[in-house]
Amino acid sequence: MERILVTGAYGQIGSELVPALRDRFGVDNVIAAGYKNTVPPQFFDGPNTDVDVADYSQLDSAIMDHQVDTVYHLGSVLSALAERDRKQAYAVNFSGVHNVLEAALANGVRQVIVPSSIAAFGPETPAHNTPNDTVQKPNTIYGISKVFTELMGNYYTTKLGLDVRGVRLPGIISWKVEPTAGTTDYAVAIFYGAIREGRYASFLGPDTCLPMMYMPDAVSSLIDVATADFDRLKHHVDYNVAAMSFTPAELATAIERRIPGFEMQYDVDPLRQSIADSWPDKLDDTVARQEWDWSPRYDLDAMVDDMLENLRRKLA
What we know:
alpha/beta, UDP-galactose 4-epimerase, domain 1, 43% helix, 15% strand, three-stranded parallel sheet, Rossmann fold, 14 strands, six-stranded parallel sheet, 2 domains
């Protein structure tokens, strides 16, 4: 049975990817690796370990000790925080990726799955219906690290025979983990504000349109690209995946239809607004649909309904 290590396992994506992988491959075969985080209660029944991805020896030991076949590498310093702490962002987002790839290669790991992001694009990229293969000149540390990740992953695949795959994730919306320092995290925080107080102040302007995806689709995209037939793939670590695009004002309207009286305000954060302004507003994911049959399940209305239902239950 396949043995899987997930780095950054206690973060927003990992907290839902790990249970999905355990359902599919068995609880004991998916090792959740975090760093200086409290182990979430839902992870108590399976193997957990502490791994600093910036430390090669820790990764090497974890892969060797658990006889790992596949690594899902999610450990990352997100966009706004990366701008504030460039040294830590470099250690995790650049050195961490290199360490994962080298440790995987040294230990005979079969496959590495590492997500990229819409941050890999920049102001010179066509913003609307952004092609899969286009100009990539990001102007943030986080975005530059994602271009590095894509190029290194493709290099290790084509030159060194390690099967590295990934998707460019848009903003991810989920209810299980509280929002942190991401530029798109307003689209999560808004639901907490709507339920708790009936209002929310967005740190992005009302007309800032960005690609978004609901967590179940994000998890599916990572597992689907991992299990796709390698012979069909012409790309590897650089697949656009899309589900929906909307502005803060459009999301507020969708919530107000379900919570009458909800009030949206705006308190724009210049840093996160400047980051959002450098990103695409819509992605063309034709390549992923053609090469491994990508297809999302959630649109804006389905996502809002599911978020409100689950968050109301959680917050109650």
